Amino acid sequence: MNNPLVSVLIPLYNHENFVEFAIESVMNQTYKNIELIVINDGSTDSSDVKIQDLLKKYNFEYHQQENKGLIFTIEKLRNLAKGKYISLLASDDAFADNKIEILVNYLESNPQYTMVYSNMYFMNVENQIVSKVKDGGEKGNIFDSLLCGNFFINSLTTLINRDIFMKYNYDKGYIEDFQMWLKIAKDNQIGYVDEYLALYRIGNTLSLSSNISKMQKAEKEIIFKYKDEAIFDEALRKWNIRWFGSFAKCNKIYALSHFFVKNLKIKNFLDIKFYKALIKFFIPCFIYKRFKWENLFILF
After folding, report:
1. Which residue spans of the chain are classified as CATH 3.90.550.10?
2. Structure confidence at residue 187 as a pLDDT band (50, 70, 90)
């Protein structure tokens, strides 16, 4: 296969305990034609000290800035990238050592796809794999499925043609990846590799009820940009079920007052996800709060 340059982009913010693991997962890739670019987005911990030590061992590009936020930082990173392909990596996550090689070979062999994604592992704060996530599995014209929330693509698992990636701008908002994948999928085919090629960290700063309201508001703003699509009514029905289930865990009054009536549709009574959301409503909140993060996926 050809060995085109791949730009791996890391927006770094307050991950002094994890950034070394993230960077070494890039440096240890079986694929070697990689440029790594890291931007420290105004970290207030010792992340810069960690990076300075790593710069003595490895050759990569490093920039510092005042805190500008994630979307600003990603925009700056991708404008610095020179590779044919771009891969995004959060500073507390990691790649499997063959991720780039497998995904480059896939895109080089399947030029009809402008982007590809894979499965991922969950890992804990000790870098131990605790579970697997196989979300999606669809390829080709997947816009309708993404808009309906049938599955999600984590940017950690992706490899994107830079020229296509640069065609679309990020909108200001709380969610950066969902909005971008919808824009790309609207006009392009997306590939999929059924392998576990990335490691997503859980348990470091997560909170069960953390920012659920912000997330729901951002998701609503994003999907309503596509209200003229033929699939929109079906997408909104599915999202109302998802939102009801999200709030039902630990904000039951809000779930009942804002989403229960919206979900009283005949079609929902034939949808197993509606019944799963109802079950969440009847599970006491303290059970979710007491459950260990590495096992919490069972309750979702």
Report:
1. 6-201
2. very high
